[in-house]
Each structure stands twice: as C-alpha cells, then as structure tokens.
Predict the structure.
Amino acid sequence: MKIMIIGAGGQLGSELVNILQDDNIIPLTHLDIEITDYQQMNDIISSNLPDIVINTSAYHRVDECEDNIEKSFSVNAFAVRNLAMICSELNTPLVHFSTDYVFGGEKKTPYAEDDIPNPLNVYAVSKLAGEYFVRNICSWHYIIRTCGLYGAKGVSGKGGNFVELMIRLARENKTIKVVSDQIVTPTYAKELASKVSQLIKTDKYGIYHATNSGECSWYEFAKSIFDMTGIKANLIPTTASEYGAKARRPAYSVLENRNLTQFGIKDMMPWKEALKEYLKEKGYVL
C-alpha cells in the first residue's frame, strides 16, 4: 500500500512511519509540505497518487490558539478542508486526527463517537470544524479522536511531551503544580499508531475514538510518572481555576473506543501499562 503521511516528523507521524515501514511510505514533514498551501498540496498528492493520505499535522498549542484564531482555523480547519477536497477528487481515503476536546465535559462516563460535541475553546472549535469538512467532503474518511497523546518524538514547543516535561521539571527541582480536576486518558503514540495501521487496512470508514483504556486526572498521571521512575518531585495538585490556563478545558473528556472494538480491533492497553512501556522505551525504568 502506498501511504502518504503528512506530519511525518511529529510524535504520532514518526510512530506511523516506523510501524508502516513494510508499506510504500511517502513521509512528509513541515519542510516538505505546507498544509495551508492548497496548490502545493494538490501538486504533491496528485503527482504521487497515494492509496491513502494520513494527516497528523495540526496547530495544537491550546492556549496559544485563544490569541491566534486565524492561524488555528487556517491549519486545523481550512487546510483540512482543502486536503479533503483533493482526496475526494482523487478518490483517495483520508485519515484525519482530532481531539477529546471537541466535547464539553458534561458527562461522567466515557464519550462515544456519536455523542454531541460541545467544544469549549478555540482549538477545539477549529478541530471540530476540520472534522465536519472531512465528513462532508471526502466520503472515504477515518476521523480518529484521541486524548492526552505522548510519544518518543515529543512535540516542538511543548517541552517534548507531558511525561518529559514532568521529568525535566522534577530534575530541575521545580515545584510542579498539576490540575487534579480534569479527567482524561493519556495515550501512548506508539500503540495508537499500531491501531491506526490495522484500521486503514479495512474499508470501515467513519469516526473512531482511540485512546488507552481507563481514566485519571493529570495530577494522577504525573504522580504515576514519578512513582514508576522513582524520581523525587515536589508535585502539588491544583484546580483548573487556580491554575488559570488561558483556554478553558473540559472537566471530563474520556473517550470510549466503541467503534474500534466493534470492528474487531483489540482495545488498547490500560494507560498505566502504556506509560510503563513508554518509560522502558526511553530508558527511565528497566
């Protein structure tokens, strides 16, 4: 299968490149393609004619998005619209990634794929707009919502990822305040990539939730990082209101991987097991 991966240098894109290496991969980083440039995207995709396009690119600095509305929609919505148009014209399936933040956190049980979105911040609205463009323009689509993603590659501008940021701050003897009233499911990029590699070999198009299983607060996640590594940290729980982030986030955004498991793909491992696998991969634990 000829697979084009946009955002191949990122923490999810790089894992997809690794796990799909037996296929004919066309990996494109931000140096190779500018997703907001319609003509360039059209030329690259039309000249390569991939069997499927996987888009992992996004503007995901959630708090920054509040002050950069135009950029948020340019990257997360209108560029995605253009990509969906190109793929539709070429009859090429499109994989697009979205976020748990499309939901408002009103529930206390995991969100299913058909629950009604209620985005609370600019980033989430722009990502939901991207979803709508994909759904309405390209019939052959996989929209994959995930949550709390972390991977070996890390994210530029975010201190690597949450795990690496926590470890770095602890080693610098910083006081670390982490919110305890936002419930999520941290997700290991390597395992997510594995599930995506299975899904794209089917023709089961639609919306999917794909996260590790279980749930925790960001504080519980941070505490588990330090418990597993044995790194001493001055970790203090706080509330979202006390923390004072610019963008409002849902109090509960756990996702149910219902569609994924219904189509016979084994559910993802519990988040603590996934964290342990990541820490082993990075050499923090034996």
Notes: The domain at 2-159+186-213+256-269 is CATH 3.40.50.720 (Rossmann fold). The chain has a mean pLDDT of 95. The CA atoms of residues 177 and 236 lie 5 Å apart. The longest helix spans residues 69-89.
